[in-house]
Specification:
The protein has 258 residues and is mostly helical. It contains eleven helices and two strands; from the N terminus they run αααααααββαααα.
């Protein structure tokens, strides 16, 4: 057991995680592309029109996975925050910063596509519905995390402050998920449930799941790609960064073009 724990903590070091992220992000990016193309083809071209909403329902193949990921990414940030605050791992704050912009993007995409779907279905771009309002709060939490960690010069203090905000903000995620059950809202309930199955046609369900996996793979790929830049910035004065081929060749490249 101790060997397994030590193995995982081996990659908690930025020096060890940097090459791993470099090897993995292209594979996740390729998977995201393949799954996204398959999901869009199935959802936009193959799946039948909804008997109540017509063709307009197809926006859910972007809206629902974006909403899922906006919550999943914030929980991932809270997970890294726990590791950082508990074990003082340097990589935790870097991963939180790498995830936050993608989470903010998905939260915005969820709100924007929800407005596009809500106008023809509800007759309004926005209503102060419990789920919409809590998703908006999540978007502001992402922006607050990014602003807070960017405003503090000391990386350690910034990581700690951002971690506390991530943990406190994570309380909003179950509010988003259960809002349609706890309050009388305009927003429809979940079409896919782990306990009750799915109320959607099989083609629609597969398109939704493919897009959800595509967004998941995209989030991992972008986080791995972005965290490498953060690691280089944070560790730029260390010997191992100076010995990296891409860093060692940088001065020669600059001189060549100067």
């Amino acid at each position: 057991m101790n060997n397994k724990i030590g193995h995982w903590f081996y990659f908690a070091s930025p020096q060890n995680f940097y090459p791993l992220a470099g090897r993995m992000w292209p594979w996740f990016a390729a998977l995201a592309t393949a799954l996204g193309l398959a999901g869009l083809w199935l959802g936009m071209l193959v799946a039948p029109a909804d008997f109540q909403q017509g063709e307009g329902y197809r926006i859910i193949f972007v809206h629902v996975p974006a909403s899922w990921m906006s919550m999943v990414i914030y929980l991932a940030m809270a997970f890294w925050a726990v590791l950082g605050l508990t074990f003082n791992t340097r990589l935790s704050g870097m991963m939180g910063r790498a995830l936050a912009p993608t989470g903010a993007m998905f939260a915005f995409l969820s709100l924007w596509t929800g407005a596009l779907w809500g106008k023809p279905m509800w007759g309004a771009w926005w209503v102060w519905d419990a789920r919409l309002t809590s998703e908006l709060i999540l978007f502001f939490l992402y922006l607050g995390y990014i602003a807070l960690t960017s405003a503090i010069d000391d990386p350690r203090r910034a990581d700690k402050a951002g971690g506390i905000l991530a943990l406190v903000g994570a309380l909003n995620v179950p509010v988003i998920y259960f809002s349609v059950k706890w309050w009388n809202t305009l927003h429809q309930g979940a079409s896919v449930s782990l306990t009750k199955g799915s109320s959607m046609a099989q083609t629609m369900l597969w398109a939704m799941l493919l897009m959800g996996l595509a967004f998941w793979m995209y989030s991992i790929a972008v986080a791995f790609y972005r965290v490498r830049s953060i690691i280089l910035e944070r560790e730029r004065h260390t010997l191992w960064v100076a010995q990296l081929p891409e860093v060692a060749q940088a001065p020669a490249t600059e001189e060549k073009w100067s």
